[in-house]
Specification:
The C terminus is likely disordered. It is built from 19 helices and 13 strands. The radius of gyration is 32 Å and the shape is globular. Helix 13 crosses helix 14. It is α/β, with parallel strands linked by helices and 455 residues long. Helices cover 44% and strands 18% of the residues.
Length: 455
């Protein structure tokens, strides 16, 4: 390929909602230095935690590739035992031990007669001796696996050990893993790259460290926050470069808005939008994508969302419709108009009143508390320090945001009254309303065209 030719990338390799991002990897300076310092410190064990979909694994995988020659990853699941977890890295490395040694010795003796001139040594002698050693190796038996054996095998392979989703492990097994960390610390003097790295959900770092106070100063806790809007825009921009496309700025802003700081959501919706527009790989010439097919891309995300998200939403709003108002949906819809940090009860009430002017203040507090209950999947949380109510998980806010937006579009479709294209776009894409108003004003001769209008 010459320097003038562009590499061809499949869209599935560019926008990767379910796997580590490579072409669209965005370095995050806010946490990069802390993570690199932790990974580079000999003997320091590392816990990386944050909301699901915020980019923890992508960030860590890219740094591990830069700092370590090899790393072994174990995906933890609910119900896994400590013994099963220990056996996984040995299985991946195909660790073996010598069960039997055999030695085979062979010898050869020879003599040669010299010529009549060789009076001093008429006869010559030769002796050959050889020994072959044979070793029989077998996999290490599960019953024989100990933390020290795992640490030794990883150390000999210059590898570190990554445990993903460790928060899913039962409490009793976490206690044993905390003890295992001590062994890795002790052997780090002999094996500098030996390290345990835990990846878990937000607020889970202490669930490992708290089991053994001795670990507190020898474990680095790295919190990966939600991505900023600029970082999410960089994902889209890198994708545009890789695919040789340009996505309308209004759509890029919309994707960033509904993603709620989650890189996985940005990747998924961008992937859906490309598929909806027929983009499967890098384009031979720059292709500009307008707002067409935006809503179908959004609906596809909702359709493919995991049952967990749908179930949580449905359980949270079930049986909350009383008389005129569907209180659960009304409250959740209002909260999607705030950031992930949420809002106070008064702010939520004011936001509801913008859509439902007659909504009663009485009962709002009890409805907010209900949405924090386990019966409602704890979809909301409450911060006693700030007085803010917020979605307990960013992914739930993103789901609700897109669901309500999709429903708004559906409501426009079923309207009994004729609706103009301008009104349709005002309801469907609010960001266009101001621009449409200016254009209509100029068209009717009631105003002067601005430079932006002419463009």
């Amino acid at each position: 390929m010459t320097r003038y030719e562009k590499a061809i990338h499949a869209v599935r390799d560019v926008f990767t909602p379910s796997s580590v991002a490579s072409l669209t990897f965005v370095p995050r300076e806010s946490i990069n230095n802390k993570l690199v310092d932790a990974l580079s410190t000999k003997g320091k064990q590392v816990i990386v935690y944050g909301h699901s979909g915020c980019g923890k694994t992508t960030l860590l995988e890219n740094k591990l590739a830069q700092l370590f020659s090899l790393h072994v990853k174990t995906s933890c699941m609910k119900g896994m035992t400590f013994e099963q977890i220990l056996a996984d890295p040995l299985r991946q490395l195909k660790a073996m031990y010598v069960s039997e040694m055999a030695a085979k010795t062979t010898g050869k003796f020879g003599a040669t007669l010299g010529t009549p001139k060789d009076i001093a040594f008429p006869v010559g002698f030769s002796i050959e001796h050889s020994q072959e050693d044979a070793a029989k190796t077998v996999p290490i038996a599960a019953a024989s696996i100990t933390p020290q054996i795992v640490a030794e095998v990883l150390g000999l392979n210059n590898a570190c050990w990554v445990l993903e989703d460790f928060h899913k492990i039962d409490t009793s097994e976490k206690t044993k893993l905390a003890q295992c960390m001590k062994m890795f610390m002790d052997l780090s003097a002999r094996y500098p790259d030996l390290k345990m790295i835990f990846i878990g959900a937000v607020h889970t770092a202490h669930k490992v460290v708290e089991y053994d106070p001795e670990l507190r100063n020898r474990v680095a806790e790295v919190s990966v926050p939600l991505m900023t809007e600029d970082e999410l825009r960089q994902i889209i921009r890198l994708g545009e470069i890789a695919l040789n496309i340009r996505i309308d700025q209004r759509i890029s802003d919309r994707i960033v808005s509904v993603s709620n700081g989650l890189a996985a959501v940005t990747h998924q919706i961008a992937l859906n939008f490309c598929h909806a527009r027929g983009i499967e790989c890098t384009q031979p010439e720059i292709l500009y994508l307008d707002t067409a097919k935006w809503i179908p891309a959004l609906e596809k995300y909702l359709e493919s969302s995991s049952d967990t998200l749908r179930t949580a939403f449905e359980k949270s709003v079930k049986d909350m419709k009383k008389r005129k108002y569907d209180h659960g949906r009304v409250i959740l819809r209002a909260l999607t108009r705030f950031s992930q940090e949420g809002a106070t009860r008064i702010e939520i009430f004011q936001k509801i009143r913008e859509v439902e002017p007659a909504y009663p203040a009485a009962g709002l507090l009890s409805h907010l508390k209900a949405l924090q209950s386990e019966a409602r999947c704890n979809i909301l949380s409450y911060d006693e320090n700030t007085g803010d109510y917020a979605f307990s998980e960013p992914v739930h806010r993103a789901f609700c945001y897109m669901l309500f937006e999709s429903e708004s579009k559906a409501n426009v479709k079923v309207s009994k009254e004729p609706i103009s294209v301008s009104d349709f776009l005002r309801q469907l894409v609010p960001e266009l309303a101001e621009q449409i108003a200016r254009l209509e004003q100029a068209k009717n001769g009631n105003g002067t065209k601005t430079e932006a209008d002419r463009n």
